[in-house]
Amino acid sequence: MTDIAPTRFSLARFERPSAIAFLGYVFGLVIIFWCLAGAGFSLEKVASSPPRFADFATRAFPPNLEPQVLARLGWKMVETLQIAVAGAVIGVILSVPVALLAARGLIAGPWVNHTVRTILGFIRAVPDIAWALVFVVAVGLGPFAGMLAIAIDTVGFCGRFFADDMEATDKGPAESLTATGARKIDVVACATIPGAMPAFVSTSLYALEKAVRSSTILGLVGAGGIGIELKVGFDLFDYPTAMTVILMIAVVVIAIEAVSGWARTRIIGEQR
Amino acid sequence: MAKRFGEKPVFADVSFRLARGEAVALVGANGTGKSTLLRCLMGLIPASSGSVHLLGQQTNAATGRQLRALRAQVGLVSQKHNLVPRLSVLSNVVHGLLGKHPGLRHWSHSLAPHASRVAAMSALERVGLADFANRRADRLSGGQSQRVAIARAIVGTPSVLFADEPCASLDPSAGEDVMELFFRLVRDEGVSVVFTSHNIEHALRYGDRVLGLAQGRLRLDATAVSLSAADLRGLYD
């Protein structure tokens, strides 16, 4: 049997952290506990919630499946999808010219790129529900306000990612077209956008999924869609109807994600 | 002409003339600035000092519009083919006319005017790929892609062609075919050519004149018939 003698070059299994790293870990833990305290985290409440949740479940099940209720909620869900699709499509279309201005080294100078990216950052920083509140004030209650909220939210999201996608395309085809004497706008239309198209499709489908999820809650602030039914259900303690709404939302969102995934594979294929 | 990237010199004191209808081979080891020199000649990147006179115009003094008009008379064939992968072969060739016909109608073969479609099909026929016009560019082999890139470069009937290691990414057989085709076409049309190559045999066979870059200087400028392979190998030592 051979003994494996430790050498002076053998490595320790665990490296002792430096004093600064140790202080960093401690600081991180303090921040986490501070946030939990601010969020009102309570183990006592967690422990006492199952009976109350069970009570809600008892009162919510079975869901309300009356034909009249299903018909009403079904039409509201159709309206929700209309808001989502219309808002996402308008948002995606508007995102293309916005992204052209935001993308560095394409058609606009650095000052324009920076300004547009800052505006897109602001749009993304404002939650979609806040945009819905703004548009309810601007255009009144109803689905139009919801559609505008989804559209601007989509511009904030797709504008940024479309710009990044265009910056990341292979520069070779663009250089070859530039060498033929093509204008910048022709080069972008013929080389950069087709090169980024798979990423555009993927991002757009994700934006549609996001729009469907968002549109289900815009009704909470009066911006149309099925969200208002959820609010009324809880306000009137009509938990079976509220449960029907929740289940409808879940089914539609999961279905949209499945269709989107299928479309992504069909359109983009294996390669991106 | 000289070119530097920041403080780092790429080449300096490069000076040569290109006669009408002449083929010039540009050889030299990796990093000697052959591709950079081609880009400077086309005005794709500015030279750090000196000037380029192309087709009677000084590129570094030209406005954007003048530069585009000048580039519309030249063509570029790159090592990586640089086709737009998801578009049809015919659309890629139609794009070669964008310098002469800017605008929406040359963004796709579906929108292109009849005359442009005919010109693009004729260019494809000359490279032997007319039957592939509707195929997606990313469904082609390497040799076929390079032939389409050649069709795109010649569709606008350029006066000068630049080729940056046109067969470097191809297997030897496809590379020979592409070089043979490329030079048959340019000789037929009397087009001037500047091409870079690591293949000494190609430089001597296809070039009328050979320029050799080494240590950032033009070390060789001689007619191909006066040179031997050994003369060029010296540039790589």
UniProtKB/TrEMBL annotation, chain A:
Q: Could you tell me which Pfam families the record lists for this protein?
A: BPD_transp_1
Q: Which PROSITE patterns does the UniProt record give?
A: ABC_TM1 (PS50928)
Entry's Gene Ontology molecular function annotations: ABC-type phosphonate transporter activity
Residue intervals passing through the bilayer = 20-43, 83-108, 129-152, 242-263
Concerning InterPro entries, the annotation shows: MetI-like (IPR000515), MetI-like_sf (IPR035906), PhnE/PtxC (IPR005769)
* Gene Ontology, cellular component aspect: plasma membrane
Keywords, A to Z? Cell membrane, Membrane, Transmembrane, Transmembrane helix, Transport
Q: How does it sit in the membrane?
A: Multi-pass membrane protein
The compartments listed are: Cell membrane
**PANTHER family found in the cross-reference section:** ABC TRANSPORT SYSTEM PERMEASE PROTEIN P69, PHOSPHONATES TRANSPORT SYSTEM PERMEASE PROTEIN
Q: Which protein family is it in?
A: Belongs to the binding-protein-dependent transport system permease family.
Name the record gives this protein: Phosphonate transport system permease protein
Q: Which organism is it from?
A: Antarctobacter heliothermus
UniProtKB/TrEMBL annotation, chain B:
Which SMART domains does the record match to this protein? Answer: AAA
Name the Pfam families for this protein. Answer: ABC_tran
Could you state a single Gene Ontology molecular function term? ATP hydrolysis activity
Domain ABC transporter per the UniProt entry, residue ranges: 2-237
Q: Which GO terms describe its cellular component?
A: plasma membrane
Q: Does the keyword Cell wall biogenesis/degradation apply?
A: no
Keywords of the record, alphabetical order, are: ATP-binding, Nucleotide-binding
InterPro entries noted in UniProt = AAA+_ATPase, ABC_transporter-like_ATP-bd, ABC_transporter-like_CS, ABC_transpr_LolD-like, P-loop_NTPase
Record carries keyword Endoplasmic reticulum: no
Protein name, per record: Phosphonate transport system ATP-binding protein
Annotated source species: Antarctobacter heliothermus
Task: Specify the taxonomic lineage.
Answer: Bacteria, Pseudomonadati, Pseudomonadota, Alphaproteobacteria, Rhodobacterales
